[in-house]
Amino acid sequence: MPWLFQKVGLHRFQTKRRLKQYVDETSRRSLRDLDSHHVPTVWKLLVIGLAYFVVMFFGHLPDHLILFPTRAPIDPGAAVRRTIPFENGDLEIWTAQSQSARQNGRADVFILRFYGNADRADRWPAMEAEMWKDRAVEIWGMNYPGFGGSAGPARLARIGPAAVAAFDELRRQAANKSAVESAVPSGPMPSSVLRTAHTTAPIVLFGTSIGATAALHLAASRPTEIAGLILQNPPPLREMILRQFGWWNLWLLAGPVTLQIPRDLDCIANAKASRTPAIFLLAEKDEIVAPRFHRLVVQAYAGEKRIIELRGAHHNDPVDGTALADLNDALTWVLTKASSPQPP
Q: Residue 262: which residues within 8 A CB-CB, separation 6 or more?
């Protein structure tokens, strides 16, 4: 019988060796299969991550998501078109005077107008010039770069510099007009000489929606040159993007977009730096910029302010009726403040 036990033992040894060989071969095959699937997965993740980074930070994503430029012709009515040089093109501005300004041959106040997104300056100056009772007003409405006849491209980063360019041109024109109006006869000489005016007609900035970001940028950077501010439904862009639109994309979209909002257009920071008397026009039922975001800007504003609630109004509703009367009264307050001696 010993031969039987030897045969059984040999069989067990051969079986264990074959089993071990099978296990080793199976393990090696599994590792090869795992590696062959793992490498492509890693590359796919790297490609997806790179594409995300490029689109988020090099594709001008905030400009495409926020700005809605149009160039279709719009009837400007009695408004007059002018252009000023800006960067590598021209900046389009539409101007209009109220009836009182035309009759007097001069304006007592200039209003530099910054309109909302998807809107245009062509449309409004001629109509808005007559909304200030009997005041002699001249409206200057600026089309943002890429909007209307202003040279593109449309970029958030170009709004602030364009606002400064428009303001500087308006200030220069206002000073020139004041100098001409102050021409007086000089003694017995038959000709007139120009007397430098001590003051020019005040300039008030009026920004609606995204236009309020441009107005606040100017108020923070040119505080002594501006008589007052009118801010209608101001949007704190960074706060809106993060709090209103971040949750549904887990901030993977909202976060990078927020980081690329230009500092020029930071409503909260500019409001904290502004001391110019301001009027806030706030739509009660604003469906674009929720009222809770209006309040962030109002609370941050460091200067004196008056708030006019637009009862029942939505984001794009015009200012009329009682609210318009309140706006005219508030403008009188702003101009009175501007003409009062300021403490050193």
A: 156, 157, 159, 160
